[in-house]
Amino acid sequence: MVRRVAIIGAGASGLASIKCCLEDGLEPTCFEQSEDIGGLWRYVGTADCGRTSVYRSVITNTSKEMSCFSDFPCPDNFPNFLPHHQLLEYFRMYAQHFGLLQHIRFQTTVRSVRKRPDFSTSGQWDVVTETKTGRESHIFDAVMVCTGRYQEPILPLASFPGIETRFRGRYLHSREYRDTEGFQGKRVLVVGLGNTGGDISVELSRVAAKVFISARSSTWVVSRISSHGFPLDMVTRTRLIHFLEWLLPSAIMKRIKFGKFNSWFNHTNYGLASVQSPKFNVIINEELPFCILSGTVVLKPTVKEFTESSAVFEDGTMENIDVVVFTTGYGFSFPFLEDSVRSLFQHSSSLYKSIFPPQLEKPTLAIVGLIQLMGSVMVGAEMQARWVTSVFAGFNKLPPISRMMEDISKKKKQLAKGPPEQVNTRMNFVSYMDDLASCTGVKPSLLWLLLTDPRLALAVFFGPCLPYQYRLRGRGRWSGARGAILTQRQRVLEPLRTRIVDDSLGGSTGSSRLGLLALPLLLLPPFLLSWRMLRPQAQL
Ligand code: FAD
């Protein structure tokens, strides 16, 4: 019987986990090594603070409506995409509203988590924590690990001959990057083109003499701003589009997507991506295309080697370089877990639904937030926490080990098989959320809604797949969920009403009235048409 739960980390995942424990009648104790909540979203100006923090200029790439906790919408007046300080403010409001802070022990690092000798019957864990005053031992019935997936910078120096031995310039991992200080007038090479690589290149282009990006694979660049100025994720993460993705062959969907991406600018002409390219990545950046167009950022292929003062690229070209910024990602590790447990999952795909190590005798250990989603990780982590605490509290059960192992090996095979072209193995947002919601018993029933509340049913199917959809039924049902779904447009537009423009002629009103619900429907015919007409285009 689980009662006392240890939660490690007080970032977005840890906060959601505390809340879910309380909701399910469990007793959470959260240990946070730093002095405050927020995890990597609590910006610090120095890189040597012992933890990962976002860079100063970062702005979320998932919108506030699609990133908020499912029963706590972001304030109406918050912008649609949040700078780090505002996201942290939102976390503080959430923690205060649900009384979470009193369950957190700050400046307390978890040093060890080991099965108790009677684990096979009790499922309990010995947890050792460390504070400035010394070490303390605790016994917990269950543990939720919420330490994030951005702990260990990956710096693949061995793949770059000469960088350590010959190159006289400076090199760093993006984890150390705070802002443009120290880059003024320099020739900078950014290695890797993910979201971070794009952000840093654009920012540096304003002060550096020149910025080069070395990209290995095709990268499609999309904007946060979609049709009619609505946030992209609200227009594209809908059940309708999810249904079409399921219905249409993946080759057709790919063509439709690439056609849409190329309708903004031709990615081949910009040296970013080609429809024929076997591997691709999608990043979000509004400014990068203009930086390329204006020559402040220059695309280059893979680096072959470094000389004393330059980088030599695979195409034989050479550029003088002062600083190299590696935006080559992060690895994760759980140094506090005993070896026999840690070895059960070297990769998140070895975890049942990316959460539970299936081989444990008792399901009392869960990893929350170790996911890569085509949507908000924060929303995914909250749904994970809801399912986990419902299992701990005995409201739901995990299937037998054999079924979990079967599910894992099926997923691994799917991953190995394809889609081979995808560089980033991000999971589909709606599929993953619906899967966990089914396990938790909170997946919205479209048929039931259609019969009882057609207006809401239409909003749920055609509108954005908002987190509130998972609070319409089941345990943890929130009475405000319906209202939050039907008023989302209001919260999107509210922060924009800082100057009221007369729209009596109806120019923009007509289209905006259609609102988010109709947008996916409007997009459907051009989508279907465009894939037929798609051809690699030669002109800009
Ligand atoms: P973290 O925020 O990393 O928190 C982990 C916490 O655990 C930290 O507070 C740490 O101090 C603590 N901890 C670690 N080890 C221990 C220990 N041994 N003992 C005690 N405490 C410990 N996601 C989105 O949904 N939308 C976005 O727009 C978005 N943009 C991003 C931009 C960047 C640049 C990055 C890097 C990530 C972005 N993400 C985004 C993903 C991000 O992972 C999530 O938003 C979210 O921050 C994950 O929270 P977390 O709690 O899982 O991890």
What does this structure look like?
This protein is of the alpha/beta class. It has 2 domains: 4-151 and 332-431, FAD/NAD(P)-binding domain; 154-328, FAD/NAD(P)-binding domain, CATH 3.50.50. 34% of the residues lie in helices and 16% in strands. The chain has 18 helices and 20 strands. It has helices at residues 12-23, 64-67, 84-97, 119-122, 195-204, 232-236, 239-247, 250-264, 288-293, 339-342, 377-392, 401-417, 429-440, 446-452, 454-462, 481-486, 488-493, 509-533, and strands at residues 4-8, 27-31, 104-105, 109-115, 125-131, 134-140, 142-145, 152-153, 170-173, 187-191, 210-214, 218-222, 280-284, 297-300, 303-306, 310-313, 318-320, 323-326, 330-331, 365-367. It has a 5-stranded parallel beta sheet, with helices on one face. Strands 9-18-10-11-14 form a 5-stranded parallel beta sheet. Strand 10, helix 5 (195-204) and strand 11 form a beta-alpha-beta unit. The longest helix is centred in the C-terminal third of the chain and has 25 residues, at 509-533. It is globular. Flavin-adenine dinucleotide binds at residues 8-14, 31-34, 39-41, 51, 54, 58, 60-62, 67, 109-110, 146-148, 150, 196, 336, 369, 376-378, 381.
